[in-house]
Amino acid sequence: MFPERFPAADWPLHVTIVPPFETELSAESVADLLPLVPPIPVAGAARERFGAHRTVPVTVLHDSAVLADLHRVTVDALESAGAAIRDQRHLRDGFRPHVTDQRTGRLHPGEHALLTELSVVARAPHSQRLIAARVPLRP
């Protein structure tokens, strides 16, 4: 389970569904926009390096129609509600679900995981991040 607050440089393992965005909505209002879906199984496919200089080690996930649909529906809902998502390169057809290596571990190719909640993460003072809202995924 995610800690409520963590350093920006020390995220727990996670799959980013939507890149950072700006909105005037409260975290609860953002959470209300998220679709209600059952838990999502994912599996590591391959090791790659992301980022402008290809220095960020990640495990790309196997294609998942459910994860791609969740991404598209969430992006559409956020944009319809006025959220500004700056990095449009990684939206819709550019979405490549992955798990970034963290200090606490990584997802290996062939390893399976189950996504059981969506979290709305906000910036907090002193280079911290805050789990501002949680949406459990339920069957």
Strand content: 25-35%
N-end to C-end Cα span: 19 Å
Provide the low-confidence segments as ranges.
Answer: none
Structure summary, number of beta strands: 7
Mean pLDDT: 94
Counting DSSP H or I runs of 4 or more residues, the number of helices is 2
Radius of gyration: 15 Å
The rough form would be described as: globular
Q: What structural category do the secondary elements indicate?
A: alpha+beta
Biggest sheet features? 4 strands, antiparallel
- Sketch the topology as an H/E string, one letter per element: EHEEHEEEE
Keywords, please?
alpha+beta; 4-stranded antiparallel sheet; 3-stranded antiparallel sheet; 139 residues
Describe this structure in words.
- The chain is α+β, with helices and mostly antiparallel strands and 139 residues long.
- 17% of the residues lie in helices and 32% in strands.
- It has 2 helices and 7 strands.
- It has a 4-stranded antiparallel sheet with strand order 4-3-2-5, with no helix packed on it. It has a 3-stranded antiparallel sheet with strand order 1-7-6.
- The chain is globular.
- The model has no long low-confidence stretch (mean pLDDT 94).
